[in-house]
Every structure is written in C-alpha cells, then in structure tokens.
Amino acid sequence: MSHPYAEVNTFADRYIRPGIQDNVYKGNWLTKRLMEKNLINIDGGTQIEQAVEFDKARVTNTSGQYDILVPAEKKTIDKMVLQWKFKLADQTITDKDKILTGGNANKLANLAMTRMLGLRKAMIDNIGTGIYSATADAGDEITGLRTAIDTGNTYAGIAQGTYSWWQCAGEDATTTVITPLILQTGFGACVDASKGKAPTCGVTTQTLFDRIWILFQGQQRYQGDTANVGWGQSIPFNGKPIVPDPKCTAAHFFWLNEDVMELFVHPDFNMDLINWDKLPNQPHAYGCFLKWTGNLLVKEPRANYKYTALTA
C-alpha cells in the first residue's frame, strides 16, 4: 500500500521559493553592447536618413601661373535611408487568474509583475534576432547585419552591386575552414590606418568560437592557484575581442566596427510599457504591452567583413 500523500497534501502548506528561474533566454552579447554604447534617440520623421560621402572632390594640377580652369560640379554626397521597424511584446492576465490566486492582491501582483518582466527579456531577445537578420529594407524586421554587410544587396536604398563604395570590406562565401590567416585577412581588410580605424570586435557562433579557442590554445596563459585559463569568455585577436553570440547566424563570422553602427530608437517607444488594460471583446482578459520602434544603422559597411560558410 502506497503512502497516502494526498491526505498529507490536503493539510500541508506549500512553500514556493520567491523569484523565477529563466530557462529560456540566452545572453545576447552584441545587442547588449549596442544598447549600452550605440543607442541613439530620435524623435521621429518619415524615415531615418544619413548623409554619406561616396567620392573625392575634384583636384587639378596647375602650373601656378596663367592656367585657365573651368569649374565643374562633381557630386560627392548621397544619403542612406532606413525605415522605422516596429516591435510589440504582449502578456495577459484574466479574471480566472484572480480567482486561482485566491483573490490575494499580492499574489496577483507578483504574477502580473513576473509576466511584465518577461516582456523586456523577450523584446531584447527578439531585437537580437533582428540585428543579425537578412531582411530587406522594406521588411518588417530590423534591417540587420546580413543585409548591411554585403557586396550585392540593396541596403538603405543604395545598391551595393552598383556602387562599390557602399560594399562591405569583404564577403567570403567559399572558405569553410577557419584559420589564423583567415581571421587576419578579414581583419586587415577592414583596417583604415590613416584614420585609425579597425574592427572593434569579432562575433561568431559558439561552435566556431570553440574552433578558434582550439587554434589559439597554445597562446593562452594560466592564472591563479587553480591554473584556470585566463581568457574568460572572449579571445583577443589584434587586441580586439572575439566573442560567441547565440544570435549569430550559423556558419558566420563577422569582423565589426561598432564605431560606424548606431541602434536608433524612438524615445517614446524604447521598451515603452502600456500597463494592464481590458482587451476589446475580451471581458475577462487584461493585456500588458511593451513597444519598441527603431532600426540598426551601419553608416560605413566597408569597415566590416563577413564569412558565411565556415564549418570548422
């Protein structure tokens, strides 16, 4: 005869540990960096525009005496145009939730707060997906890195296949094996020594990061009494961190210059929370919404490089 747990449970109290343990979301390295360092608030407008210089001004050699010069117009400025992208996260509570929590206001408030906190994590997670997207300018998703860092897309209204000055530093779709030379080739292509410009980070998948870890294992240094490897969660390359990002697209490695990237957001829709309101045609339901509106701006694609077919 089994022990009558049902009888005990009838009279016993339950202890529910406070808080909630996240078993869904993973850290999103690049999104966190952009939201902390490269977040730009703008108040609206029909679209997001940025002037870009695409050619050099005319320079003529002269004798310095009686040269006859005929001035001519030379266009050197164009503009990139991005559209606003909109995101909405939502949660609900119902009259049934009120009843099941025994009419206890504190318990219902804790349930509501837990669901509200989940909205922010879900939104950041979704923004991270968008940052790596290949969505075209006209799509609903963020115009992501796989669109901007390319040689043949139309990005921000400008055709990269037509205008080489708008192409990324390189797009390698044939290399499959990652090596130190491959990493250096991409890095070097992004360097503009005269301006002191170079990639600020390398971003890839965990699988490819593990492969890079093996490549440079002999250069690691051991620290502390327990002889732990001293690199932590990034690998330095030319003084810049290479990091794994769970949102990075499979088989991809990006050399990124964050100095030419901005994450635009409207200040009224930057995780703007609309608290619990009754839902139309739902007399027993209340909705909570989190809004975000913005886009990712890559002002200088040529400062970035990508590999798209790496396997090991």
What attributes characterize this protein structure?
single chain, alpha+beta, flat, 24% helix, 29% strand, 16 strands, 4-stranded mixed beta sheet, 6-stranded mixed beta sheet, 312 residues
Structure report:
- This protein has one domain (26-53, 78-219, 228-300).
- Strand 14 (261-279) and strand 15 (282-298) form a beta hairpin.
- It is of the alpha+beta class and 312 residues long.
- The longest helix has 27 residues, at 105-131.
- It has helices spanning 5-11, 29-37, 95-100, 105-131, 145-148, 180-190, 206-215; strands at residues 39-41, 48-53, 77-82, 85-94, 154-155, 158-159, 170-172, 201-204, 222-223, 228-229, 235-237, 240-244, 253-256, 261-279, 282-298, 305-307.
- The strands form five sheets. The protein has a six-stranded mixed beta sheet with strand order 7-16-13-8-12-11, covered by helices on one side. Strands 1-14-15-4 form a four-stranded mixed beta sheet. It has a two-stranded antiparallel ribbon with strand order 2-3.
- The protein has seven helices and 16 strands.
- The radius of gyration is 26 Å and the shape is flat.
